[in-house]
Amino acid sequence: PLADADLALIPGDATVAAAFRLNAETIYNEFLTSLGTFDPHARDEFLREVPRGLERELGLSITDDILRPLGDTWCLWSAPSEGGLVFTGLTLAVTVKDRDRCRKTLDKITGLLRRELGAPGDAGERRPRRGFSIESTTCRGVAIQYLNAIGEECPAAPAWCLTDTHFYISLFPQMLKAALARGATIESSLARQPALKDRGGALAVTYAD
Residue-wise over 3-21: b if at least 16 C-beta within 10 A, else e? Predict the structure, then answer.
């Protein structure tokens, strides 16, 4: 079950928050099993188009490179102290079991995005005057990558980063900066609820103000 420490990433003034246990690899394998039970042809078609297509295009395995390195503790929140409204401030964090594998996977995906967008790389090429590009910034030594739009109608700047223990993703890099600057403290509005201890533990808990 969840413990108070699992909720430490969630700020105490979160207006919307959730924490849950979920093993992504197990869910994926159960999905394949169920799909094969209902329609073996559909399962074979899915495997041919999605995981094998991903291996051909990126050299990535859904199981080995994307799902297995992730942990099973997920936290989602939005807090006014981090500058976010209910939806625009949503931040998701999941624990990681294999940081090195996660880093290699993210580097491959980010590299593909840079090539597809024609964005400048690390060699100092001139930035495009219009369009989308992958930009980066840092906070407390952690590199944050985000999609930047210049002259395009885009309501968000999706951002992601990887620390020693978690993979974060949010709609804006500012939310990740706020989360990294705050760090993990046992002050979560969820952790203050009696459900975790008084009811023998929980696998998922949500909160909305």
Answer: eeebbbbbbbebbbbbbbe
CA distance 203 to 166: 19
Cα-based torsion angle of the residue sequence 77, 80, 83, 85 in order, rounded to the nearest 10 degrees: 70
User: What is the SS3 string spanning the chain?
Assistant: CCCHHHHCCCCCCCCEEEEEECCHHHHHHHHHHHHHHHCHHHHHHHHHHCHHHHHHHHCCCHHHHHHCCEEEEEEEEECHHHCCCCCCCCEEEEEECCHHHHHHHHHHHHHHHHHHHCCCCCCCCCCCCCEEEEEEEEECCEEEEEEEEECCCCCCCCEEEECCCEEEEECCHHHHHHHHHHCCCCCCCCCCCCHHHHCCCCCEEEEEC
Least trusted range by pLDDT, from 101-110, 157-166, 183-192: 183-192
pLDDT, tens digit (0-9, with 9 covering 90-100), for 29-73: 999 999 999 999 999 999 988 888 888 888 899 999 999 999 999
Token readout for 182 is 């705050």
Q: Is residue 75 within 8 Å of 93, Cβ to Cβ?
A: yes
Confidence of residue 184 (pLDDT cuts 50, 70, 90): low
What is the rounded distance in angstroms from the CA atom of residue 6 to the CA atom of residue 165? 12
Q: What is the token pair recorded at 192? A: 């203050």
| Alpha carbons 12 and 57: distance in angstroms, whole number | 42
Residue type present at position 45: E
